[in-house]
């Protein structure tokens, strides 16, 4: 039986569909705006906390460790350069060997960059992976830090070019190289009769 | 009447959606802020303490040398001990979080004490802050590569994030600690 409401029923459905669409649009719009502003606020509220943590837990102790052995190697080299072989109680040749070793240690330590020995930030890596999976794009990193990395890779390229190498060199030093240099420095100081605490 | 009611409900709804989004966004933004802050703080802490550690290591190494060699007079011993004392005063945490210490002054004192120690020893100072113009020492810069190859100091502030407070960031030789 024809219902006089049939037509009206269709209209109602269409109206509800429209309302549903409007509802979704409105909710998404406001949720997204809130999300965007929330991200900015959340970031601003926590960046100082992150900075202080990174400074105290990683940056300062790591920098001090490297600085200490660099300073010690520099002092040892200065001493060897200023001392005569008589004072050292060694032959001239042996003194040259000692100076060369001290110079080599200081030079290799001087070549180490923060980025060579920086420990991994596992939480940051994990979050970056989540972004990659969710959006198919990498998480944006701080512009200045990114710039520094690029600058370093240009430096590496230039140093390879000036060394006349077309292939990759031995690569950047690692924390293990730092530890090896520390041992060499300790051996050299002990050889000279200086007991130093190489923490 | 009905129109008024609907409008109010709608505004409430909009607010609810906004707040839900804001909370989720805030949580996500917090993760990003912590990650970025950590990266910047690590780099800054490393830069500052690498320099201070260098001076400390330099002074520490000379102590057993004096002992064994009988080198150095009272003046060098005094410089060494004073340098170590000054470095011991330097905070190991973000210095902008410590109010009582005059960081720029302490940094200047440490650097000049290190240079004084070098000159009494006849050693070439390795200036680890050569891009900071007011302390620039051309002669020393030129000899750095020979004495102890230096890390290249960073070109500019990497941790500076403008804050709405309008407070001027404190600076140590052009470097701010408030990021």
Set down the secondary structure blueprint.
The complex is a heterodimer of chains A (199) and B (179).
Chain A (H helix, E strand, L loop, with lengths): L5 H77 L2 H4 L3 H19 L3 H4 L4 H14 L7 H20 L12 H17 L8
Chain B lengths: L1 H68 L4 H16 L13 H19 L16 H10 L23 E2 L2 E2 L3
Antiparallel strand pairs in B: 1-2
Helix pairs in contact in B: 1-2, 2-3
InterPro entries (chain B): Essential_protein_Yae1_N (IPR019191), LTO1_adapter (IPR052436)
Pfam family, one (chain B): Yae1_N
Family (chain B): Belongs to the LTO1 family.
Task: Give a structural overview.
Chain A: Keywords: Cytoplasm, Nucleus. Chain A: InterPro entries: Essential_protein_Yae1_N, Yae1-like. Chain A: It is found in: Cytoplasm; Nucleus. Chain A: Belongs to the YAE1 family. Chain A: This is Protein YAE1. The complex is a heterodimer of chains A (199) and B (179). The longest helix of chain A is centred in the N-terminal third of the chain and has 77 residues. Chain A is elongated, with a radius of gyration of 31 Å. Chain A contains seven helices and no strands. With 199 residues, chain A is an all-alpha fold. In chain B, β1 and β2 form a beta hairpin. Helices cover 63% and strands 2% of the residues of chain B. In chain B, α1 runs antiparallel to α2 and α2 packs antiparallel against α3. The C terminus of chain B is likely disordered. Chain B has one domain. Chain B is built from four helices and two strands, in the order ααααββ. Chain B is rod-shaped. Chain B has 179 residues and is mainly alpha-helical. A two-stranded antiparallel ribbon of chain B has the order 1-2. In chain B, 39% of the residues are buried. The longest helix of chain B has 68 residues.
